[in-house]
Amino acid sequence: MRLALVVSLFFVALTSCKTVPRKSSPTSPGPTRFEEPQEGPEPVISQQIDTKPEKFGLLFSGGGVRTWSYITILKEMQKYKMPIVAAAGVEWGAIVAGVFAQNVSANEVEWELSKFKRADEWLDYIKKSLEKKSIAKAKIPFACASLNLRNQTSYILNKGQLDALIPLCLPALGVIKPHSQSVASMGDMTSLVQFLKNTGATKIILINAISPRSGKPHGSGVESAENQLWIQSASALNKKAAGVDEIIEIDLANIPVERFDLRRSVMNASVPLAKDQLKRIANKYGF
């Protein structure tokens, strides 16, 4: 009986026990998975290249009738659409520069120079052709160089009326007599170069109609005072003034500077010279 009682108590205790649910442990995170970045095209680093064209300042030397060759030069420049922002000159180069600055037109220069007839009537020609043409109203800046014989001082003239300024920059020995005690300042190229740079020109082109290399006289004779002056001027130009980037030389040594009756011959002879040299410059600067 005692054994039966023990067995009964065992079963009662067993059935009265409650099953306690076991707490599940939190799920531990697995290993982190890293996604490899997908390779795309490499970023393109843009480089800004300055493609702005050069701005040209033109410096015209003297040369008497030989400066009619500058018409051909300007026509070639127009073909290449070279941006010209200023013009300066001495002696007859001053007329070319002054007229060109008014409208930036080679045809206009040709038209105005065609009106010139006789060297002894040069002042009347200037007064009629350049009357009421103001530098202030020109399309591009202009300057010419004048030497005053009285005070022996060279001036850069760039303000006022062309018909008043050009006569002070035009006369040269053996071609035209001094006007108001003033002549062309043939050797003052450095000041004109600086003037052109101050206007914003990035490249200066010297257009030179008097070359010292031929050995032929520019005027009436090798030993004449006139020729000595022209040779000195030509030698100075040949040294390439500081700031000049390009030189266009029109070698017309067989035509004396005072022979204005040969204007048409000058223009015809300058055509191949102008074409060859402008092609070189245009290719160099991408025109």
Structure commentary:
With 287 residues, the protein is α/β, with parallel strands linked by helices. The protein is built from 9 helices and 7 strands, in the order αβαβαααββαβαβαβα. Strands 1, 2, 3, 4, 5, 6 and 7 form a 7-stranded mixed sheet that branches. Strand 6 (203-208), helix 8 and strand 7 form a beta-alpha-beta unit. The model is unreliable at 1-30 (pLDDT under 50).
Summarize this, please?
Helices cover 38% and strands 13% of the residues. The protein has 287 residues and is of the alpha/beta class. It is globular.
Separate helix tally: 9
Radius of gyration: 42 Å
Low-confidence stretches: 1-30
Indicate the structural class. alpha/beta
* DSSP strand content: 5-15%
Helical percent range? 25-40%
Number of strands: 7
Main sheet specs: 7 strands, mixed
Which tags fit this structure?
38% helix, disordered N terminus, 9 helices, alpha/beta, seven-stranded mixed sheet, 287 residues, 7 strands
How would you summarize the topology of this molecule?
Layout: H1 2-16, E1 56-60, H2 69-79, E2 84-89, H3 92-103, H4 106-114, H5 122-129, E3 142-148, E4 153-157, H6 162-169, E5 182-184, H7 189-198, E6 203-208, H8 225-238, E7 246-249, H9 263-284
Parallel strand pairs: 1-2, 1-6, 2-3, 6-7
Antiparallel strand pairs: 3-4, 3-5
Helix pairs in contact: 2-4, 2-9, 3-4, 5-6
